[in-house]
Amino acid sequence: MNTVTDRDTKVTGTTEASAKVIVKVGTKKIGEVIAGKTGIFSVKITAQRAGTVLQVNAIDNANNTSATTKVTVQDKTPPSAPKVNTVTDRDTKVTGTTEASAKVIVKVGTKKIGEVIAGKTGIFSVKITAQRAGTVLQVNAIDNANNTSATTKVTVQDKTPPSAPKVNTVTDRDTKVTGTTEANAKVMVKVGKKKLGEAKAGKNGKFVVKIKAQKAGTVLEVASTDTKGNTSKATTVKVQKSKK
């Protein structure tokens, strides 16, 4: 008897020439065929689940029945690609669901950064070191029969706000607020809830926000929002009286 997997739709092997070959699961016959003159047979069956025990007998032309050959169906079906939850640049774990009790491996390129065995319900949580935004994680599951799933790719999301902007001195004669922040961030200047102006920082992080001149003592709040919508803490700047 040749090996039978959970993908096979036939049972093959050799027996006595021209014997009838019957394949059963328990008492249920799932297929039969007459072996060829060389004893080779191929019995058509519906694919069976891994772990199913097939019972195969041969009956010769004198109606003598052979001993039973038992064959356990082998698992050759890989798990489905894991379902992976969003991963941010602040996360220290990768979570999701896969086949029950499968091993889950997380890689960046060819480097493994974590692995774990999924629970009986298929839920997994792989510990990792936090990764930079934009990093592509590759997640695979390997079942108990060593079949490997297709890869699920997850791009690490940016959830880290910029640092509070560094703002230069502003006097009551100035009509712009200058400083540095994260490259390409949007910089907004407010007094209380009122927006005085906004501008986009350059590739080097420098910004210039046009405003109307403010009275000495006015407190400006300057915050930046990165391209992923994360907003920094506000930097407060008190307008200085200009020197005449």
Would you mind describing this structure in some detail?
This protein is mostly beta strands. It has no helices and 20 strands. The radius of gyration is 35 Å and the shape is rod-shaped. The N and C termini lie far apart (102 Å).
Please describe the topology of this protein.
Elements: E1 10-14, E2 20-25, E3 28-34, E4 40-44, E5 53-59, E6 69-72, E7 83-84, E8 93-97, E9 103-108, E10 111-117, E11 123-127, E12 136-142, E13 152-155, E14 166-167, E15 176-180, E16 186-191, E17 194-200, E18 206-210, E19 219-225, E20 235-238
Antiparallel strand pairs: 1-4, 2-3, 2-5, 5-6, 7-8, 8-11, 9-10, 9-12, 12-13, 14-15, 15-18, 16-17, 16-19, 19-20
Give the gist of this structure.
0% of the residues lie in helices and 43% in strands. With 244 residues, the chain is mostly beta strands.
Assembly state:
single chain
In percent terms, what proportion of residues is strand?
Answer: 35-45%
Uncertain runs are none
- Average pLDDT number: 97
Helix content estimate: under 10%
Structural class: mainly beta
Order of neighbouring strands in the sheet with most strands? 3-2-5-6
> Number of helical runs?
0
What gap, in angstroms, lies between the N and C termini? 102 Å
Shape: rod-shaped
* Helix-strand sequence: EEEEEEEEEEEEEEEEEEEE
Q: How many strands, what sense, and barrel or not for the largest sheet?
A: 4 strands, antiparallel
Per DSSP E runs of 2 or more residues, the count of β-strands stands at 20
Task: Tell me the radius of gyration.
Answer: 35 Å
